[in-house]
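Q: What residues go here?
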């Protein structure tokens, strides 16, 4: 028997195509919703500035994140687990996967002091509130072997494309906002999977999380998707090539990790 959440997700998928059309029209100034107008307000908001996109790898525990308090930052999923420790919430809090959205809904809905950007299909569990935006999130091209994967959006008010990691969504948002320098941290691309993966590529954890910055991130009882690092790497490669053509700097300031192609830079040299 389907759960209430599964039914809601199915309904969202069923209406996805007409909703995609509405977002397209809205991006052209036709029947533009208040939500889209708010997303459009982000266009070039940070023109020629720099930002830090904080991944969730355990390597960030080796970094002095207090240096980011006065920087513009993007955080994701369960960043709230360390917000008290590091002394800040990210300026932009991004979630696109229904598993961490559902499992952390109460906490995410209660967050204040950050602009929350959730994929449109999560509004059934991540509720509208002040400073919450819902861009259209397109997961149509999910086969990493397809020549149509990944894609990169140049207009976040129309669509944002899936890339196998929430960080890919944040990179597209950062580009739309006009950032000239985008620095990645915590992109370890290193996972240990000891649990069984079901036929929907879902893992249910039964022990403390060793793959992320906090042991409760995907701790016992939490659900997460099979981390396809090959798919993630392909998306990062594409983002780097795309942004390079636009003369936007994308660099990897992660401590260690397995992310390839994107040039590295020493984190502390940026301050």
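A:
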């Amino acid at each position: 028997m389907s759960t209430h959440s599964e039914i809601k997700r199915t309904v969202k998928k069923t209406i996805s195509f007409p909703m995609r059309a509405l977002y397209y029209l809205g991006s052209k100034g036709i029947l533009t919703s208040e939500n889209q107008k708010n997303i459009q307000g982000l266009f070039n908001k940070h023109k020629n500035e720099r930002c830090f996109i904080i991944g969730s790898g355990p390597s960030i525990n080796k970094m002095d994140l207090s240096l980011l308090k006065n920087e513009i930052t993007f955080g994701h999923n369960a960043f709230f687990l360390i917000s008290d420790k590091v002394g800040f919430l990210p300026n932009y809090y991004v979630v696109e996967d229904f598993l961490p959205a559902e499992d952390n809904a109460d906490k995410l809905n209660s967050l204040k002091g950050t602009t929350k950007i959730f994929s449109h299909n999560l509004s059934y569990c991540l509720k509208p509130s002040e400073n919450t935006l819902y861009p259209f999130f397109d997961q149509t091209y999910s086969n990493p072997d397809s020549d149509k994967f990944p894609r990169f959006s140049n207009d976040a008010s129309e669509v944002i494309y899936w890339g196998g990691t929430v960080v890919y969504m944040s990179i597209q948002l950062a580009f739309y906002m006009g950032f000239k320098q985008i620095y990645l941290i915590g992109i370890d691309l290193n996972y240990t999977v000891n649990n069984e993966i079901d036929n929907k590529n879902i893992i249910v954890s039964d022990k403390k999380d060793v793959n992320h910055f906090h042991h409760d991130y995907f701790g016992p009882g939490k659900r997460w998707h099979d981390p396809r690092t090959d798919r993630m790497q392909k998306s990062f490669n594409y983002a780097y090539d795309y942004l390079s053509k636009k003369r936007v700097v994308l660099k990897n300031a992660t401590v260690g990790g397995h992310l390839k192609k994107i040039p590295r830079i020493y984190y502390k040299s940026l301050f």
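A: Context that may help when evaluating the design: Helices lie at 4-14, 16-27, 34-40, 80-86, 98-103, 105-110, 166-177, 229-245. The longest strand covers residues 50-54.
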